[in-house]
Design goal:
Layout (H helix, E strand, L loop, with lengths): L1 H21 L3 H21 L3 H26 L15 H22 L23 H10 L2 H38 L1
Helix pairs in contact: 1-2, 2-3
Length: 186
């Protein structure tokens, strides 16, 4: 039974992730993101992590996606006709090289079973949950020592998201400012 629920949740999560990336409408992409996050919550329930499942639904599928929708509506991205930005010379080949390098690193980590991202050893089991798992100080130490690389990657992804939001905002304000300047001149 658990395998069937896992398979259904995995298919729904993959379909939602493809929908997030492939959707042309940002509002639809946010709704596909909700589908993906609810699938992750189902996986948490399968692993008897009911609190994490509830937090996943309330915080991420609820509050964060609502925040995304507010930003989409405030920026007017859903009504923009043209959001394409001309690439800088060499940007696409560089992106292909960086993407291939990231896939190679990820493949190496998965194949070798390196504990850089997970903090777990294949034969060692769960080192992070030994002893008192409710001790916040211990969880913090484990998070910023054994999982430091994953925390840094998360910080980099959040920084990229903030830079993307700033670029979208500046692009919208430039187009609004040039339109008002042209109207005032005539």
């Amino acid at each position: 039974m658990a395998e069937a629920v896992f398979a259904v949740a995995a298919v729904l999560m993959l379909a939602g992730a493809v929908g997030v990336v492939a959707s042309r409408n940002p509002v639809h992409a946010a709704l596909f993101l909700v589908q993906t996050l609810v699938g992750v919550a189902v996986l948490f329930v399968l692993n008897d992590a009911h609190f994490l499942a509830a937090v996943q639904v309330v915080v991420y599928a609820g509050a964060i996606v609502i925040l995304f929708l507010f930003v989409i509506m405030l920026l007017g991205v859903d009504k923009a006709e043209e959001l394409s930005i001309e690439p800088i010379f060499g940007q696409r080949p560089l992106a292909a090289v960086v993407g291939a390098a990231l896939v190679a690193v990820l493949g190496t980590v998965v194949v070798t079973g390196a504990d850089v991202l997970t903090g777990l050893r294949r034969a060692g089991g769960d080192r992070a949950l030994d002893g008192d798992a409710t001790d916040i100080e211990r969880m913090g130490r484990v998070l910023f020592s054994e999982f430091a690389f994953a925390v840094e990657i998360t910080a980099a992804l959040l920084t990229v998201a903030v830079v993307g939001a700033v670029i979208l905002t500046r692009r919208a304000s430039r187009s609004d400012g040039s339109a008002t300047a042209d109207t005032a001149a005539s």
